[in-house]
Amino acid sequence: MKLPESFYLNSNVVEVAKSLLGKYLFTCIDGLLTGGYIVETEAYNGGIDKASHAYGNRLTSRTQTLFQHGGVAYVYLCYGIHEMLNVVTSVEGQPHAVLIRAINPTVGLDVMQHRRNMAVVKPTITSGPGSVGKALGISRKLNGISFQSDQLWIEDQGLTYAEENMVAAPRIGVAYAAEDALLPYRFYVKGNIYVSKPNR
DNA sequence: GAGCTGATTGTCT
DNA sequence: GACAATCAGCTCG
């Protein structure tokens, strides 16, 4: 069953990032179903987070999606190559989002393998935000789409993790964000092979 | 309009 | 471990 709209309206984006661990993310692009459960996320805490694109409530054509109500996708291009998927949360006007950094694939492995041009399936197939985007067929055409749609959605299939199996750590690649780079806004499942950086 | 930078990854040494 | 790939947004002029 799809997560209800209310799940995404929580104004505590850090809480949402943590509770997304173990949730199943699916895409159905060009009629091809792919998905798996989320094992790594990062929270971006709206206008007061120097690591966020919307820091200082900066409103541009790119960031306007972040200001929408929770439950839509924010997809953007990084380094000119990688399409990254975020889950927009909280109420309209609060640019909160959760970056999906890694999933444990369960459905459509052959499709993902083809999209990634991999001769053999390796854990890197969905490890890291750029890899997740590519494997799931995410493109900027999905920017602003609802997580209640039939192209992109998240399900709760009853998978949960105990506190000791979830790790909170500083985010990746945000050194420019000064003191905000140290915040423990990255969450991952301890020991899962799809987590993008070494488990500690 | 030029110049720089980034929520990264794959490849080559 | 270094670095190229490649483009949108931001800052200045």
UniProtKB/TrEMBL annotation:
Query: What are the recorded GO MF terms, alphabetically?
Result: alkylbase DNA N-glycosylase activity; DNA binding
Among PANTHER family, the record links this protein to: DNA-3-METHYLADENINE GLYCOSYLASE
Q: What is the lineage of its organism?
A: Bacteria, Pseudomonadati, Bacteroidota, Sphingobacteriia, Sphingobacteriales
Question: Keywords, A to Z?
Answer: DNA damage, DNA repair, Hydrolase
Q: Which family is annotated?
A: Belongs to the DNA glycosylase MPG family.
Pfam families (UniProt xref):
Pur_DNA_glyco
Q: What is this protein called?
A: Putative 3-methyladenine DNA glycosylase
Name its species: Mucilaginibacter robiniae
Which regions form coiled coils?
none
What EC number(s) does the entry state? Answer: 3.2.2.-
